[in-house]
Write a structure and sequence with these properties.
single chain; Rossmann fold; 8 helices; transcription; transcription regulation; two-component regulatory system
Length: 224
Amino acid sequence: MNNDLLFAIATDDRMLRRNLEESLAGDGIVVKSFSCELDLLRAMRANRYDLVLIDSKTESTATSAILSWRSFNADICTPLIVLTNKSSWASLLRWIDTGATDVVNWYDMEQVRFRAHLALQRSASNSTTHEIQIGRYLLQKNPGRATIDGVEIPLTAREFAIAWLFFSNPGKFFSRAQIAAASGRRRADCCAYARAAHLQAARSAHDGQVTVDNSRTATTSAMT
């Protein structure tokens, strides 16, 4: 690995921090530690990290703010590895389905080191997404523009953010917590805001389908 890489980890486990730092020190990699995901997420908004690791003991898939943020920011290609002691297929798959790049046993530091190297290689070949086109709809990240058949759909910045989240993940379900983290909203007002945003989208795209489950999740289907 290059000697100018900067990794970040969210964990309150001092032993895990130390083991990770020692394992990667030989590769010249600096590891910045944060006690929780929210602290790391704030840092990610201002700093660039080559790879991010999450301790599954600290956060669960349902409340992972970083994974939700990455889903919203489809052009953020920073690899994210989850460190866990779980070995069941269902547990590992939940993290991958939520957006993690890889899941590795935190006791095997050589495996963590290898997986990090592999994730960096793969991310280097990924192209940045600035546009999403599904059927008659086109979303452009910059300058935050949505059109249908070339006609612009008037959306606020937050409405566009919600639209980008769903269009980046067609058919995928999102919990209230994930939408709240992605849109920067508090959980308490997220559901009401999400409903308003979906209604606005439905008015702008009358032939689209937007579904909101008030008790659990929200999702969109591809609009064609």
